[in-house]
Amino acid sequence: MAKVEGCIQMYEEIYRMKGRLCLCFLLVDSGATLWCFWHLCILQERLRQRQEQQEQLVRAAYDMAREQLKRFDEMKELKRRQEIQELREVMEKSLKETQGQQEKLKEEHRHRAKILNLKLREAEQQRQRQEEQERLRREEGQERLRRLYSIQEELLQLNQQIDPNYKHKDLPKIDLSAYSNRGNQICGLVSGLIRTTSERGFPSQMDVANTEQALKEMRGLISRMQQEIAAAVEEKKRRDEQEKKQKQEELLKKQQAEAQTPAPAQPSGGKQQKEALSVKAREGTMKWYQQLQDAAAQCAAAFSAMSSSKDSEVRKIRMELQKAVTIPVSQISTIAGSQLRQIFDKLNNLLSGKPVQSVGETVLVTQLPQGLDFVYYKLAEKFVKQGEEEVASHRESAFPIALVISGIWEMHPRVGDLFLAHLHRVCPYSVPFYPAYKEGASMEEYQRMLGYLVQDSKMEEEDHFLKRMSGLIRLYAALIQLRWPYGNKQGTHPHGLSYGWCWLAQMLNMEPLVVVTATLLYDFLEVCGNALMKHYHVQFWKLLLLMQEEYIPRIEAITNVGQKASLTRFKQFLEESLQKKDIPLPKGFLQPSFWRS
Q1: How far is the C-alpha of 422 from the C-alpha of 109, rounded, in Å?
Q2: Distance separating alpha carbons of residues 180 and 164, to the nearest angstrom
Q3: Could you tell me how many helices (H) and strands (E) the chain has, helices first?
């Protein structure tokens, strides 16, 4: 760069000198001009030489710079090759290390895979062992369940041998009610145990041992009863012989004209034992129950030909009649009193032979000869079905349904009888009636007699059964206290509170059942306890006190630890009612304002 600058300065000096020469030519004469020209030539030669020197220096500098650039490029290429070589060495080293690590990882993977395979084999073997144990457990459980069923069947058969009304022709005073009561309690305990074990799965060995112990106790009970009867017979024979001998002695003394011996004093009796409760319904109640069932059977027989008819027109009319009954009943609710009255009027008109609209069709019961019987039967059946389903799920719905039943019952008494027949068949506890096991009957038939639903040889769960029975009893309890407000107010209720009082009294005169009795008594009193309290006053509170002091202990005696929920709820209800001397109106009770809606 310094040389280039020197060349530039030289050229600038040349141009300055040329300027000076031009000025000299103007100022001096011709001689001076020649001197100046000579001097200028000398200067030009010097300048040329100096320019050549500068050019040589520039070329030398250029060559040197080019050589330095070459050296620099060579150095740069060398460094690049060295870096590539170092990078290759690093990569080779890293590759070797990576390969080593991969080999190590492969070895670890093989080791872990081997361990995992061992664990998988062990897990599979453990699963197979567990499956085998579960299969054996199920087989044992099924075997224990079959054992429980066979024990229950034997218990029921043995219980049939105990007749509380047994009267020996020579022993009129013998009383077997205590044996009967204990036998029923044993059967109830076993039945409750079987229901509990069925809900949680299979019975345990302890359950089988408990049922076998109950069977052993029942056999001992039968044996003691037979021994008592045999001992009583022997005692009777001995007393007869003594009386005969005594009579002979008296006769001999009379013949000898001796004084008459005074009649022996009656032996003083000990404290009377508390009478045992009955396990059967009263004879009058059972007669009434049978009359209702016969009436329902006769009604069903009256339209059986229509039900089995294959005539398309008859089948169409039958379906329309059934819809005209079931649809309005399904629409009963607590929404508005005006809607409830419309439903009642529609059903009343249908039963009265008037035309009604149903699903866009005009329906008349007179369209078929047995149409009225069919409608009576289906309406009563639907009312009971609502108790099983609607009231069981929504307890407040018992009151509007009961109002419609009450009104229809007043206008058409036959519907009320058919309603009771259906209710008693589905819920025998509403009679009250505890069906006894009949010899030769299957367990499914007996379970159906008790009110259970049995499908595909599988009995419904206990909670579902109690829910259905609760809904039916609540509907019945609402019915006996309600009257249709637009009916004949001069007449009496077709099935009023007196029937509820009678039902309650008969329930307390019968031996309780596990869970069922406490549940139904609580539901009944919660719904109509307020009405009974206002109607019977002091007698009602005496009855509640009797329940608390005498009947609750009977229920506790047959209730297991896991079955005390309903009993506890019933006890709390009694305690609160007796403490407050009041039972509030049930939830959902229809107030007068309902009919203005």
Answers
A1: 74
A2: 6
A3: 19, 4
**To 10 degrees, what angle do helices 30-160 and 205-255 make?**
20
CB 198 within 8 A of CB 459: yes
Q: Per residue in 69-83, pLDDT tens?
A: 988 988 989 999 999
Q: Which residues, 6+ apart, have CB-to-CB distance to 33 below 8 Å?
A: 24, 25
- In 320-465, which ranges are E strands? 356-358, 361-363, 454-455, 458-459
Amino acid type, 282: R
| b/e map 252-289, b = 16+ CB within 10 Å | eeeeeeeeeeeeeeeeeeeeeeeebbbbebbeebeeeb
Shortest CA distance to 208 belongs to which of 233, 190, 187, 226?
190
SS3 assignment, position 125: helix
3-state secondary structure 419-444: HHHHHHHHCHHHCCCCCCCCCCCCHH
DSSP string, 249-311: HHHHHHHTTPPPPPPPPPPPP-PPPPPPPBSS--HHHHHHHHHHHHHHHHHHHHTHHHHT---
Distance CA 89, CA 95 (A): 10
**Averaged pLDDT for residues 41-68:** 87
- Indicate the residue type of 544: L
Q: Is the pLDDT of residue 31 over 90?
A: no
Q: Strands, DSSP E only, in 377-487?
A: 454-455, 458-459
Question: pLDDT for 458-486, tens place per residue?
Answer: 788 888 889 999 999 999 999 999 988 88
